[in-house]
Every structure is written in structure tokens, then in C-alpha cells.
Write a structure and sequence with these properties.
Layout: H1 7-21, E1 26-38, E2 41-49, E3 56-64, H2 77-80, E4 86-96, E5 100-108, H3 110-130, E6 148-153, H4 158-168, E7 177-182, H5 190-203, E8 210-214, H6 229-236, E9 242-245, H7 254-258, E10 261-263, H8 266-367, E11 372-375, E12 378-379, E13 392-396, E14 399-403
Parallel strand pairs: 3-5, 6-7, 6-8, 8-9, 9-10
Antiparallel strand pairs: 1-2, 1-4, 2-3, 4-5, 11-12, 11-13, 13-14
Length: about 400
């Protein structure tokens, strides 16, 4: 009969062999498949995958007891011990006949995990840039006024409530229309819900001015969802500018880097929107005042030009009137001179006509037997007109003769 052993004997032998060979802690690299926290203790399911085909090659459980945690570990445990992270742990393997193999963690190297996370972040950045996604949302222009706002957050989160309170109670009385798309912003469900909310907004019939993603404070590790490639890709490809305020004062995520605007807190996002609208109102008022002043200046300038033109026209009209008056006076004088000249000419013509007429009458009288007597080159009408000192001329139809007159003494 072939020699055989009981199961308990075999497992006890395995346990003893493991204890003999691994008396001191060893450093082990593994990936976290599951994690839970209970009363300060951390319970892990660790795995290892083939890097080529991603097939599972190893699996075991591990425990980090509260007593093993150092004071400076408290802040980093939630950042380090998260599903999907690779960890470097200092542990002692233990085997139990019933519960099997388990690793008792003595210590862990936080910088190892953080370094791997930073490496993953850089890979995500390079992939986004390689696919030409990095600048897409950053290049979207914010509307002049942000009024219709899509919000991705949990409506019960403190950060969401802070954002809504700040927005609703702004001192300028601005009114906003907000639509909330419910989504976890941390935890295992956050990735799918964030992507679904972004898709819902982009496919909505309603139109928005921007998308707001806000969350309150929390552990640094809770921010890892905002470093996820698919989440960042959806932010890049969103139809609207994305503003994020994920409540962390120091650390920046890739979502912060690819979003249109990144602010530290939800309250800061609300203040930014309010200030953005205030800037538009202020600029609008300044432009209005400038336009109004420009119109006044133009009107004043036109009025001055009109007055100058009117004055110029008045002077021109005055000069024209003066010139026309002068021309009229010249014309009047010319007409009067021409009239006088014509009058004199006509008078001379009349005298000539009269002389001719008289000559005509004299000739006729001479034909009838009358004589014409001239003395001192004048025709005699009466005896008293005779000048005895000069000869008289007697004109008849057959000629004229000079005679000397002597006064009779009788």
C-alpha cells in the first residue's frame, strides 16, 4: 500500500516548513484586489497578474493590524490601500490548516505606491496628449454670461451644498438656473457615474453654459478617480467648458489640468462664476458709458460743425448780398449813364429834327413869296431886335443879299 498522509498532517507540515524558511519578514510586491477597513485594521485581497495577457497568476489575503500602524501612516493609508494600487509590503507569511495562507503586514513603503501612481499619472497625461485631447476643453470659450449651469456632484455632499449656497446668496442678486446630475465623486462607483453624468449632459436636449464638477474635502486617495483616463477623456470631449472644484488645496489632478478652469474648492467655483458675470456687467456698463459719451461728443462736434457751417453760410450770404448790392449799384449807374446818354442823343436828334423841320417850313414860306431877315446871325422877329451896327441879311427864294441899315432922322 502506498504511503499516505492525512490532510491535517500535510497542511501542518506546510505550516512548519513555511515558519522555518520565513522566520524574518520579507518584502513583497502585489496588487490590491479588495480592501476593507474595520476597527482600525486593514484586510486585503492581494493578486498578481501576467503583464502580457493580464491573467491572474497569484492570489492571497493579507492583514495590517492597527497595532502595526505608525502615527505618520494614518494620513496615507487611504491613499495607499486602494483597489488597483500596487503595494510594497514587509510581511511574514503564515499558514493555517483551515484558513490557508495569509500575509501579516509589518510595514509598507508608501513611496513605492506613490511613485507607481505618479508613473501612471504621467502615462495618462501622455496618452491624452497623444490622442490630441489635452487642450480641447481648455480652448472652449466661456460664454459672456454663465446662467444655465449643469452640476455633477452628490446632492448631499457638503461641497455641493457650499457651492449652491454661495451661488444663490451672491450680493449682486444674480439668478442662475442649475441642473444637478447625481454622481458619486469618490469611491468605487465614482468613475462610471462621472462618465455617465458627462454623457447625459452632452446628450441632453437642454443647453448649458458650462459644466461644474464639485466635491468636498477628503483623503488624497479619493482624488484618484479624477486621474482616470476615461474620466479625463470625457471632460476633454465635453460640449461645454468644464469647471472643477474638487476640494483639495494642495494636490492637483489630471482633471484639473485638462478642464477649462480649475479652482480649489466648490465655493471658489461659485465665486468665479459670480465674478465672471460681474466682469461682463461692469464691462458692459463701461462700454455703454463710452458709447454714450462718444455719442455726446459726436453730437457736440456735429453741433459745432453745424454752427461753423451756419456762420460760414451767413458770412457767405452777407458777402453775396454785398457783392450783389455793389453789382446792382454798378448796374444802376450803368443803366442811368446809358439812359442819360440815350436821352442826350435823342434830344440832339430832336433838335436836329426840329431844325430840319424849321428849315423845311422856311423853305416853304420862301416859295410862297416871304422873306427871311437875319441880323447878327439871328432871325429877326421884331423891329427892336435889329442891331444897326451890323448888316442885315435878306433871304428870298431866289437867293440872299446883305444890306446896311441907317436910322432915319425924321
Amino acid at each position: 500500500m502506498t504511503e499516505s498522509y492525512s490532510l491535517s498532517y500535510l497542511l501542518h507540515h506546510v505550516k512548519r516548513s513555511l515558519a522555518i524558511n520565513y522566520q524574518d519578514p520579507i518584502w513583497v510586491i502585489a496588487e490590491i484586489a479588495q480592501v476593507s477597513f474595520n476597527k482600525g485594521n486593514i484586510y486585503l485581497n492581494l493578486i498578481e497578474k501576467n503583464e502580457k495577457n493580464n491573467e491572474l497568476t497569484a492570489k492571497t489575503e493579507a492583514t495590517l493590524w492597527k497595532s502595526k500602524l505608525k502615527n505618520n501612516d494614518i494620513e496615507s493609508i487611504f491613499e495607499i490601500f486602494k483597489i488597483g494600487n500596487k503595494i510594497l509590503i514587509k510581511c511574514i507569511p503564515e499558514f493555517h490548516e483551515i484558513f490557508g495562507l495569509k500575509l501579516n503586514i509589518e510595514d509598507f513603503d508608501a513611496q513605492f505606491t506613490i511613485g507607481l501612481l505618479q508613473l501612471e499619472l504621467e502615462k495618462t497625461r501622455l496618452k491624452l496628449k497623444k490622442e490630441l485631447l489635452w487642450e480641447i476643453n481648455k480652448q472652449k470659450k466661456l460664454p459672456l454670461i454663465m446662467k444655465n449651469i449643469a452640476i455633477i456632484s452628490s446632492s448631499t455632499a457638503a461641497g455641493y451644498l457650499d457651492f449652491m449656497h454661495q451661488l444663490a446668496n451672491n450680493v449682486y442678486g444674480y439668478q442662475f438656473k442649475t441642473t444637478t446630475f447625481e454622481s458619486s465623486v469618490q469611491g468605487d462607483a465614482a468613475k462610471i457615474e462621472l462618465i455617465n453624468s458627462l454623457n447625459a449632459i452632452n446628450n441632453s436636449e437642454s443647453k448649458f453654459d458650462c459644466i461644474i464638477i464639485v466635491r468636498g474635502g477628503g483623503a488624497k486617495m479619493d482624488l484618484q478617480v479624477f486621474n482616470d483616463f476615461e474620466v479625463c477623456k470625457q471632460i476633454c470631449l465635453s460640449n461645454y467648458p468644464v469647471l472643477v472644484g474638487i476640494g483639495h488645496e494642495i494636490d492637483e489632478t489630471i482633471s484639473d489640468e485638462v478642464a477649462n478652469k480649475s479652482l480649489k474648492t466648490p465655493t471658489a467655483v461659485a465665486e468665479y462664476i459670480i465674478q465672471h458675470n460681474l466682469n461682463f456687467e461692469t464691462n458692459f456698463q463701461e462700454v455703454y458709458l463710452q458709447i454714450n459719451q462718444t455719442i455726446k461728443n459726436c453730437f457736440h462736434m456735429i453741433l459745432q460743425q453745424f454752427e461753423q457751417i451756419a456762420t460760414g453760410i451767413q458770412w457767405k450770404m452777407k458777402n453775396i448780398v454785398q457783392n450783389k448790392n455793389f453789382e446792382f449799384e454798378l448796374l444802376t449807374k450803368n443803366i442811368q449813364n446809358q439812359f442819360n446818354a440815350q436821352l442826350i442823343h435823342k434830344q440832339q436828334q430832336l433838335l436836329m429834327i426840329e431844325e430840319k423841320f424849321q428849315q423845311y417850313n422856311w423853305r416853304k414860306n420862301l416859295e410862297n413869296g416871304y422873306f427871311i431877315i437875319e441880323n447878327s446871325h439871328k432871325r429877326l422877329i421884331t423891329i427892336k431886335d435889329i442891331n444897326l451896327e451890323q448888316e442885315i441879311k435878306i433871304i428870298s427864294k431866289d437867293g440872299e443879299q446883305l444890306y446896311k441899315i441907317e436910322k432915319s432922322t425924321n
